[in-house]
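hey can u check if this looks right to u? its 189 residues, i copy pasted from the old doc so theres a chance i mangled smth
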Amino acid sequence: MHASLCDFLTDIVQNSIEAGSHLISIQIYQDEHAMTFKVTDDGRGMSEEQLRKALDPFYSDGVKHEHRKVGLGLPFLQQMIEETGGDFSISSKVGEGTEVNWKVPLDHIDSPPSGDIPSALNSLMAYPGDFELRFYRCAEKGEAKEEYEVNKSDLLEVLQDLSTAGNLVLMKEFLQSQETAIEEFLQRD
């Protein structure tokens, strides 16, 4: 289900895709103490009532998953944040889109591991559909920072296709090299 922070991230982005978004932005910030995630989209958005229901684990509109009686992605995220003492917010406007923010303390015993960011991003970039996905990752230590940015349209321009095995391997290697630079930066004294 949700064994890592990347599992929560892919679940939230899948919601954005299914909401008909044309532009989805993912930002991940990290320092020695916490990871902060921000996902924004320009999808259908939700009314206040829909937003309240989206946070209710015992509600499902039956549209997204016809036979499912519950919707657990956002409620599980919210519960994990409450258990770890992090921060969570969601805002949405009908016809404009949704923004989900969460911050997870890295030193809390109940905080899940970050997971495999390159694999999660690889899957999201290759997910079928006519949407732009923008990803920004930043790690900070004191005044120094290491960052990278990648967009689905840029990858498509270079690789032409994000569904073939060879291109998926190339994309994963590129993303892994960027994430390795972040990890090395965070481990430096």
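The first strand starts at residue 23 and ends at 30.
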